[in-house]
User: Fold these one by one.
Assistant:
Number 1:
Amino acid sequence: MGRMSEQSPEGGRYEDGPARALPEYAEQVLDVAELIPPGRVMTYGDVAEWLEQGGPRQVGRVMALYGGAAPWWRVVRADGVLLPGHEQRALGHYRAEGTPLKEASRAAEGHLPRIDMRRARWDGGDRAEGHT
């Protein structure tokens, strides 16, 4: 349970201190994030569907507040655009893990690649034991 003392990707501290447990939904979202294999991604909506509760905004909020200790770069926008403000950190993870990327065209602002969602998206098909 060392997540509360970690920094979020935004660089701030989590709202909950170490004395308070993570909300149950946040724990569930982070557990799903940790199941995603290296080099693969799920969208915020995919995570909500997996859990059969909440929606993309709720998952995004959990990741913003509590995701710093989880593989936050594996939970992404459906359009494959990198997390604003964390593009370089995310790219480092994607390149290290071999996540499929679409290189940006020269006209693209910032020349940042996007995640190749068709190839990188994980449907949870090889679910870890304990999930049904």
Number 2:
Amino acid sequence: MRVNEEAHASDDVNEAIAGELALLDPAVRASRSEAVRLLDPEFVEIGVSGRRYTYEQMLAWLPDNTGAVAPEEPRHDPPAVTGTLLAPGLVQLRYETDSDGRRARRTSLWRKRDEATGWRLFYHQGTVVPPDIE
């Protein structure tokens, strides 16, 4: 039996996108158990500030930075997320956010080690886009 690799790649990318969007949801960000479910234990982020976050640092940071607790806090709702299956069990996502005029281009790597753990965010990076750049 031949597996439709394109359909499988699309399913993998869609699952990673669903996880990324879940992590942008204030309710998920406020829930340690949900964050643990979605973050890979080897997770690393390079934020738009240039700061490096580890798995434990991110789990501690997320509940206080949900993006929607107060009206003055930014909520990151990307208009479009695109993705590519780089290898079996590895998806790269790309999107842009705008938080009160501060644009950032973002990329994430999602890893799936096995069916039990599913897709988890392994790496994320945000890069500020200067106002004069399209």
Number 3:
Amino acid sequence: MPRIRSRKALSALSLAVTAAGSLLLAAPSAHAGDYLDSCLNSVGSRTSPNGVWTIPARTFSQGSSGVCVQEIQFDVSSVIGLDPADFPGFVDGRYGPKTDDYVRRFQRTFGLQVDGIVGPQTWQLLIARTTD
């Protein structure tokens, strides 16, 4: 009997590992800048204050939404990380209180004006920190 239980346990473990592997393979993995081209196409572009980077032509703050907000969320989470509880679903394209909090943390960390607004200076640093 112990052998049968061991086989059942091994089979269950094997199925669980296979299922988890399938989920990981099926889940798209985003990379820094994945949303940037779409953002620039949707709002236009301008040159960053330092003259080096192409940044979106708009500023974003709480209440904004869309692909540019997804870029902000992805970049901020890539640079400063996320609290584990915030990880699932953070990059959703809605600039709410959590995104505002993380943008402010980013701004504070890098010595920018802490206002929660992703304007030219914040865009410049986000893109500089996430572009190869």
Number 4:
Amino acid sequence: MAAKAHGSTMAGFVVFAGTMLMVIALINIFEGLLAIFSDEELVLTRNNLIVVDVTGWGWTLVISGLILFAVGAGLLLMQTWARIVGIVVVGLHLVSQIAWLGAYPVWSLLMIALDVAVLFALTVKWSDVRGRIGGDRGTTADRERARVAAAEQRMPPLV
């Protein structure tokens, strides 16, 4: 009974990870489009007023958002490639948040905690989660063997 509860909890974590990646992707795409269409920003320093072009940053956000959205959708479909890419992307995001600790400490700590939760979901008991959600359907031969084995168990004994 405890194993079933643990499997459903892990399946919930993976659904959470996929959903969070898709939400973050949509936010990145929105911010990237804003940066592309409003590509000149003013930066006020002590002695100067500087105009900065943020088009490159906007395209970076849009492309990373599209990748994150694909990974999130792949996770919801229980694709192994999405798990591997998700681990890499979330790991890189975690390391980048460490670099932002000095500028945005509370936000960075929250993002690091979220990244750790997502990494946990992507690295623990993947095969159990795939079976629980239904991503591990097996081949046709595997399904046929399982059906025959189930039928043999239902047969009455021969006397």
